[in-house]
Design brief:
With about 90 residues, the chain is of the alpha+beta class. The protein has two helices and four strands. It has a domain of about 50 residues. Strands 1, 2, 3 and 4 form a four-stranded antiparallel sheet that branches. The longest helix has 14 residues. About 5% of the residues have low confidence.
């Protein structure tokens, strides 16, 4: 997407993210993942090309949303939750 002359930049430390998707559900799923990493405002939704959805969010890149965990960390069983070696 090319910037327009009257497009303004977000304030320092913030980033504008635009998601274009065939369905609103897919766009919201991606936005949810982004919100888990960065603090930010609610998204704004618009009709997209060909009947799809455009979703815009502004995130604060200086503030984490909370303790973010990688996909690898979330895919592993938590330590101490399985049987011990000496258990059958």
């Amino acid at each position: 997407m090319r910037p327009t002359e009257n497009e303004t930049l977000p304030e320092a430390g913030h980033t504008e993210i635009r998601i274009v998707s065939a369905t609103p559900e897919a766009a919201r799923a991606v936005a949810e993942v982004i919100r888990r990493c960065f603090a930010g405002a609610e998204h704004r939704s618009y009709p997209g090309p060909g009947g799809g959805t455009r979703l815009h969010l502004t995130v604060d890149t200086k503030t984490a949303a909370g303790p973010a965990r990688t996909w690898l960390a979330t895919s592993r069983q938590p330590t101490g939750s399985g049987p011990h070696i000496e258990e059958p």
